Amino acid sequence: xxxxxxxxxxxxxxxxxxxxxxxxxxxxxxxxxxxxxxxxxxxxxxxxxxxxxxxxxxxxxxxxxxxxxxxxxxxxxxxxxxxxxxxxxxxxxxxxxxxxxxxxxxxxxxxxxxxxxxxxxxxxxxxxxxxxxxxxxxxxxxxxxxxxxxxxxxxxxxxxxxxxxxx
Length: 167
Prior knowledge:
The chain is about 50% helix and about 20% strand. By secondary structure, it is an alpha+beta fold. A hairpin with a 4-residue loop joins strand 3 (about 55-60) and strand 4.
């Protein structure tokens, strides 16, 4: 799916700020959670963009709201609501997938390495790796070669622990 419309809001906002003839504010809708826990869609004016957080400043004078929102939570008049819903769903699933990956990596790093610290790259595997490398390693700085070998060993240990965890 093409998400070019997500970047379109930033371009529209920049064009309106640079050209006074486009003086009409950018109006959209966003869901707002009220103090009692309910949420409702309220009209907001897009007033700025923060490149550091890649979020838009939105304001609603009626409710006294000045906040920042991600693009997928701002629905403009010319947006397709189906695309916006798909983008929200994709963002939520990618966030859940990333959290799961980080959870596994943290478990391996903090728990399993302490228990299974004896796992090392077997000598025959190390020899096989050296045979497959088509470069004469003696031509390079021995410290750099050792760093490379240590990285390969660390990746091997991580893969072994991940396989142990998923089995």
